[in-house]
Fold:
Amino acid sequence: MSKKLEDCVTTIPDFPKPGIMFRDITTIISDPEGFKMAVDQLCDMVKGMDIDIVVGSESRGFIFGAPVAYALGKGFVMARKKGKLPRETISETYDLEYGSATLEMHKDSIRPGMKVFLVDDLVATGGTTAAIIKMVEKLGGKVVKIGFVMELAGFDAKNKALKGYDVESLISYP
Ligand code: 5GP
Structure:
């Protein structure tokens, strides 16, 4: 039987805190078949769609987003942690389980009307992704597809934080 993407994910109980089942992508990307499956399947999500640019967030979103952009023949835009981007930025602060975080994008990275494919490794509440959507939309872009390698379906991000967007995941965990 051929290998499935799910087989390449390692689950670590109680990391980084008791009660959390951490889904580790390092074993996807260190496996040539696993990495190729993930990138190819993310690309398939936008087959036949009109996409101008791929956006990914620091840092695991870079690992999947950049090769997806390359394979699609598109550019890649980084949503980075606060203070890392050298030119004029737009920023969005969002809530984490404890405290908050800020992501930034270069103001000129998205031009009005651009159709965006947003890629990340995993969605839980959807808070990180919602912050990126806000920035893209403030810059005049349109998020036409959101692709995750994994979703933690119990958070129901598709019907909550990301309601109304075209969201797809390669692997779904409860
Ligand atoms: P959200 O903002 O959707 O609640 O959380 C998603 C973010 O948390 C993603 O950027 C993701 O990298 C990180 N994250 C949360 N839990 C996990 C996990 O179990 N595995 C991995 N790889 N990332 C996680």
Summary: The chain has a mean pLDDT of 97. Residues 49 and 144 are 9 Å apart (CA to CA). The domain at 49-173 is CATH 3.40.50.2020 (Rossmann fold).
